[in-house]
């Protein structure tokens, strides 16, 4: 029995790419916002003289957001 050719793979269109990267942007913004919010709450809870925990949590949020975006982009290439 002859094999039927597989249908050609579709390339994602520009609207799909736009929505995907827009989603990544919102994911980054929400991750950073939540980490800064948590840092402010921790600073208030521990009554720190300077916003050390806010700054630390903001940096952690930025690194986490970048990690998530890089992981998504790397899985896209495979």
Word description of this protein:
- Helix 1 packs antiparallel against helix 2 (about 50-75).
- The mean pLDDT is about 90.
- The chain has about 80 residues and is an all-alpha fold.
- It is rod-shaped, with a radius of gyration of 21 Å.
- The protein contains 2 helices and no strands.
- The two termini are about 30 Å apart.
- The chain has a domain at about 30-75.
Task: Provide a concise account of the structure shown.
The protein has helices spanning 14-46, 52-77. With 78 residues, it is mostly helical.
Tell me the layout of helices and strands.
Layout: H1 14-46, H2 52-77
- Which regions are unreliable across 5 or more consecutive residues at pLDDT < 50? none
> How much of the sequence is in beta strands?
under 5%
Number of DSSP helices? 2
* First-last Cα distance: 32 Å
Helix content: over 70%
DSSP, total strands? 0
How would you characterize the largest beta sheet?
none
Q: What letter string, H or E per element, gives the SSE order? A: HH
Radius of gyration: 21 Å
Broad structural category: mainly alpha
Basic shape: rod-shaped
Mean pLDDT over the full residue set: 90
